[in-house]
Amino acid sequence: MEIEDILRAVQTTIKSIAPDTDVQQIRPDRPLREQIELDSMDWLNVIADLHDRLSIEIPESDYGRLATLDSIVAYMASRQAEHPGGPLRTTAATLAQLPCTRHLVNGTPVALRPMRPDDMPLEQDFVRHLSNETRYERFMVTLSELPQAKLKYLTDVDQVHHVALVATVDCKGQQVLVGVVRYIVDAAGTGCEFAVAVDDAWQRSGLAGILMHALMEVARSRGLSSMEGIVLATNTRMLKFTRQLGFSKQRDPEARDTVRVVRSL
Question: Long-range contacts of range 241-247, CB-CB < 8 Å, 24 or more positions apart?
Fold first, then answer.
C-alpha cells in the first residue's frame, strides 16, 4: 500500500469517528486532538478502526507515536514495511503451542485457553462487570463497556503478533470469563507488551499469576527476549505484582502518571 493510500485510510477513519471534521483542513504536523474534538473513547475507536482497515497491530505503548496525521501515516507505513505480506494468521502449529489447561483456584475449576473471535460477548460481559477502578487501571480511560471496534480488536487476534489467553469458569452451564491476559509483539519482533485484567471477585486469588506465567511461557517459546507493560503510577498493587514476577521499574520523566515495567525472558 502506497503512502497516499495509507493517508486516505487514516482520513476515512477520522471522518468515521468525527463525521463533522473536514479532513482536508487538518494540519498534518499538529496534534490531532488539538484540531478535532476526540475524547478518550473516540481515540480508542480511531486506533481500533485503523487496525481493522490496515490489518496492522498497534501496541498500546505506541499510542503516543500517533499524535499527528504525519506521524500516524509514517508509523503505519513503517509497520506495514515490516510485514509486507500482511499479518501472519493462526496456524494449527501456532495454536498447538498455546495452553489449554485446567486449574483449581480457591476450590473452583478454572479453564485456561486461547481467546477466540466468538468470545466477543464473554469479553464484553467481563468488562461490564469490572469495577470502575479496575476498568480504568486496565484501559487507562473511563468507560463502561468496550466500543464494537475495540471489542473486535481484543478478541479477533491472530495469536502470532497478538496473543490472548482467557480464564473461564462454568456458571450454571454457561462459560463466564474471569481473566484475560495478552501480549503484542513490538516493532523489532524481539519483545512484547503485555496487559492483564482479572475480575474483581478473583483478585488476590492467584489467577493473575497463573495467567501471567502462562503468557510468559508462550512468549519465551516463541523466541521473544523481553516483556514489558505500562502501569499507572498509582496502581501500587499491580506494581507489587509485577515486581514479584521479576519485572523491574523504568520511570519515564515525561510520563508522570505511568511506570514502564520490564522483564527479560
Answer: 241/208, 241/209, 244/209, 245/209, 245/212, 245/213, 245/216
User: In terms of residues, how long is the chain?
Assistant: 265
* Calpha distance 172→81 (Å, rounded): 48
Give the chain's end-to-end CA distance (angstroms, integer).
Answer: 35
Find out whether 221 and 183 touch, Cβ atoms under 8 Å. Answer: no
Residue 143: count of CB within 10 angstroms of its CB: 16
Which 3 state secondary structure label does DSSP give 120? Answer: helix
Residue 63: per-residue pLDDT: 78
Answer yes or no: CATH 1.10.1200.10 is held by domain 3-82: yes
Q: How far is CA 56 from CA 100, 144, 177, 207, 222, in A?
A: 27, 26, 27, 31, 20
* pLDDT tens per residue across span 99-114: 889 999 999 999 999 9
Cell numbers describing residue 102: 485446567
Q: Where residue 51 falls among pLDDT bands split at 50, 70, 90?
A: confident
Instruction: Break the chain into its structural domains and give their ranges.
Output: 3-82, 92-264
Q: Which residues of 92-119 are buried (b: 16+ CB within 10 A; e: fewer)?
A: eebeeebeeeeeebeeeebebbbbeeeb
Instruction: Give the chain's mean pLDDT.
Output: 86
Distance, CA of 198 to CA of 207 (rounded, Å): 8
Q: How many helices (H) and strands (E) does the chain have?
A: 10, 8
CA distances from 134 to 15, 146, 225 (A): 31, 14, 29
Distance of CA 143 to the CA centre of its chain: 15
Which CATH superfamily groups domain 92-264?
Answer: Gcn5-related N-acetyltransferase (GNAT) (3.40.630.30)
